Amino acid sequence: MFIDKEYPATHSMSTAWYCVDDDGNVAIVDFNENGPVPWGTPEQSIEYLSYGYCEDEDSDEYTPFSLTEEQIFDLLGESHAPTYEDAVFECFVEIDKTKEERFFELTQNPDCHIELCLSKSLGLYQIDIDTMTQDEDGNWIDIECATWHKMVDEGVVTKIYSKKEYFTNDVYEDDELRFEKEFDTSPYYIFCQPYWPKFLTTKVSEPAHPVKITQLPAELQRRVIKVRGLFKEMTSFQIAEYHPCSMYSPENGYIVDGCEYDLLPMSDGHKAYVMTDLFADIHVPVDNLFTLTPTVLLIGVEDDIPYKYQVTSDFVIKSSIYITFPGNLLEFRTSTLKQVLERINPRVILGVANIQKTFETNFVIKDHILHIDGKQYPIFFKEEQEKFRYEIERLASMQYQGKRFPYIISEEEMDQLAKDEDE
After folding, report:
1. How many other C-beta atoms are found inside a 10 Å radius of the C-beta of residue 80?
2. Per residue in 247-304, pLDDT tens?
3. Which residues contact 157 (CB under 8 A, 6 or more apart)?
């Protein structure tokens, strides 16, 4: 089936993500509202990704990267001696190492906490000190920063660093695209995806001391998108060539055999149609797509996605596709599930939310086997998955057995498909 895609008004987003080149150099891509975005990318910023890694958004606890001294100071702004008047919201400070114990004691106060240890050896920390509170009527009022004043008076903090604004902007005028940035240095290669999807992701900053993939935590290394070539030798690339992407504000596309394809510029300069939706014809709510050949089908409830299933790097998740249904499950459609199963024919189904009752009401399930339309699928619900983890991993590692679709279709091939459909 071939359909000329009619696009409704779509929303945009701003976010960022990591990439790594053939030499292990790490880049951060800044996305400006429109174009391809790797599936599973949450809304985040260059700044959020630069200092460390947060595995669990509920705790918001960072694991700092193993950055060198040069890389750390490439991230920080200018420094000055601390004063009472300094803005102390998520600020970076350098402490007197001989007063480290006193620093930790003060950060236990209710108006202060440590956001991030950037370097224990250098005494560099990001701290957050409350400067306002609410009165009995709910109005925000200024309060005396008692803890900060003690840090200044006692010489616990010796320097405070200005916070760089890792902001990029693209300007298109007189048929020319140019970029602006509000920072001078970064230890990462910085690329920017322009507002206009007809342009490639473009390099806007090159580091003097590049961060290597080995400096990131192991669980994060496996999740970083690999780009062929060397960042130092390239000026631009197309992220959709290297990872399944969704498309924000598409302009020209088609649906072929139920899959959506959007026209994008390729890294070598030509244009081609790239798959951006595996289920365009049945409108299944896909939240994350980690591979185009999934052996694992994750099923959850909209707005209640366990965080570990969004970010975890283990083999099961990297072999999966994640679909969701509305929180009340009133719109759960057995027909939709059947079409998904027919298309990808997963080796195993995992319920990652409390959907067991719904499934047992709509289907026959016996001994962890889902029976549907004469076919059988191993299925494990939320509370069972740790116990059967070995079996789940074994099934996930098996060969993909669903339908296969081309990922990239050339303009010439798409034109021929259109002609064939007209005939």
Report:
1. 11
2. 887 777 889 998 899 999 999 989 999 998 888 888 777 766 778 899 999 887 765 5
3. 82, 93, 94, 95, 96, 103, 151
- Other CB atoms within a 10 A radius of the CB of residue 203 amount to 19
pLDDT of residue 220: 83
Q: What is the pLDDT of residue 41?
A: 79
* The pLDDT of residue 131: 66
How far is residue 239's CA from residue 191's CA, in Å, rounded to a whole number?
Answer: 11
Delineate the domains of the chain, giving CATH numbers in brackets.
2-54+167-275 (no CATH), 77-161 (3.30.70), 285-396 (no CATH)
pTM of the model: 0.84
Query: Is residue 143 very low, low, confident or very high in pLDDT (cuts 50, 70, 90)?
Result: low
Residue 26 exposed, middle or buried by CB count within 10 Å (0-12, 13-18, 19+):
buried
Q: Which residue has the higher pLDDT, 164 or 190?
A: 190
C-alpha closest to that of 322 among 303, 356, 299: 299
For residue 219, give both structure tokens. 């669980």
